[in-house]
Design brief:
heterodimer; A: alpha/beta; Aminopeptidase; 6-stranded mixed sheet; 4-stranded antiparallel sheet; 16 strands; 29% strand; B: mainly beta; Rubrerythrin, domain 2; 3-stranded antiparallel sheet; two-stranded antiparallel sheet; 6 strands; 43% strand
């Protein structure tokens, strides 16, 4: 199978979260062509298994993308398309490497998770019900010489304030003014928390939406605040603080996933560092300020786990998303060497 | 007995594994076992912070 053509085929099928069926079916066909036992699971994840034995390595990538189709095109070594980096490139690399490695006395299970880009993480939540594998590799762009060990967690705050209308010439603050004051207080608390901390250990706030309206009887304001939280962040006490700062407003929480940081002293990490060096690279460990399916799977499986894949993550979710095919092939080589050595 | 390449402290390692990452008890730097016979240590791959996903 021509590797660039295979990746191009995946990129040409637009699959934003919730619309992955077509690409799932295609992957099942291609997995079968490569000798995998393939099927689509209850969540819609295409699954391919190859090899036999009690020992299992799970390679879980994701087949959904953010919205915004990018016409697939090749410019020299670069292949453009939505998902080239995040994360059909890593997914395709997993499949090609597993097909090439064919280890003995070891099962390789490749999973194309759905809805990673949605807060539901539906594909990963289905996969986490599987028995714990011996090793797990999550498909995300680390660069071919990078090994991602951790991701920050997340928490969303839904702020809502409803108050009877009063004359604007009277005393007191309007509902939108209270909402702004809440946001400012939250930012001040985060600034204090973040003193002296590096980005991976800091609390990040992002005001995603703020809307206000009035109907003559009541004024309403709503805001959505997305947080990126560090490892061991005390969520319960933070929620109490949010309640205090919100005053008479109501705050609800959603999309709560803790941060996760993997251990780097295990045979899986050693296999990656050795394979990257053998391919002429200098391995680097990465800690990411975003989230991935590692946040869902890592705590449940509690096995050696890393995220790996070709691509520059600064191109994630951008209209310029592309991957170097030379890097893609190097990542396949590294993955195949890792799978053969474990 | 291995030597920390950063502070030259002597570090005793029992059953070292190639690729294992250890911490120097004196200077605290992370070190990688790059050879086991004899045991040799080098600075471990650095941790970078990155965004994405």
């Amino acid at each position: 199978m021509d590797d660039a053509a295979f990746l191009g085929e995946l990129l040409s099928l637009y699959s934003p979260s919730g619309s992955e069926q077509q690409v799932a079916n295609l992957l099942c066909e291609r997995l079968a062509d490569l000798g995998f036992r393939s099927y689509v699971d209850a969540a819609g994840n295409p699954v391919g298994e190859i090899g036999s034995g009690e020992r299992e390595i799970v390679l879980l990538g994701h087949i959904d993308t953010v919205e915004g189709f990018i016409a697939v095109r090749r410019e020299g070594d670069l292949l453009y398309g939505r998902g080239a980096v995040d994360a059909k490139g890593p997914m395709a690399a997993f499949i090609l490497a597993a097909a090439r490695a064919r280890p003995r006395n070891l099962r390789l299970t490749v999973i194309g998770a759905v809805e990673e880009e949605a807060a539901s993480s539906r594909g990963a939540r289905q996969a986490m019900q599987r028995p714990r594998p011996e090793f797990a590799i999550v498909g995300e762009p680390s660069g071919w010489a990078g090994i991602t060990l951790g991701y920050k967690g997340r928490l969303w705050i839904h702020y809502s304030l409803v108050r009877p209308m009063r004359h604007s010439a009277g005393p007191g603050r309007s509902a939108p003014e209270d909402a702004v004051a809440f946001w400012n207080a939250l930012q001040a608390a985060a600034t204090e928390f973040n003193q002296g901390k590096r980005p991976f250990d800091a609390l990040d706030l992002s005001l995603r939406r703020i809307n206000s309206r009035a109907d003559g009887f009541a004024e309403r304001v709503e805001q959505l605040i997305a947080l990126r939280v560090p490892v061991d962040f005390e969520v319960a006490s933070f929620k109490s603080l949010v309640g205090e700062l919100a005053g008479e407003a109501v705050c609800q929480f959603s999309n709560e996933d803790p941060a996760f940081r993997a251990n780097k002293n295990n045979p899986l990490v050693r296999a990656f560092t050795a394979a990257i060096r053998a391919a002429g690279g200098e391995p680097r460990f990465k800690l990411k300020t975003g989230t991935s399916d590692m946040n869902v799977l890592g705590p449940v499986w509690d096995c050696p786990i890393v995220a790996y894949g070709p691509g520059d993550s600064s191109l994630d979710h951008t209209p310029n998303e592309h991957v170097s095919l030379a890097e893609f092939r190097r990542a396949v080589d590294v993955l195949a060497a890792v799978l053969e050595s474990l | 007995m291995a030597v920390c390449p950063e502070c030259e402290a002597e570090i005793e390692l029992k059953e070292a594994i190639k690729g294992e990452i250890v911490q120097c008890p004196d200077c605290g730097v992370e070190l990688e076992v790059v050879s086991v016979n004899p045991v040799e240590l080098a600075p471990a791959p650095e941790e970078e912070e990155d965004w994405g996903e």
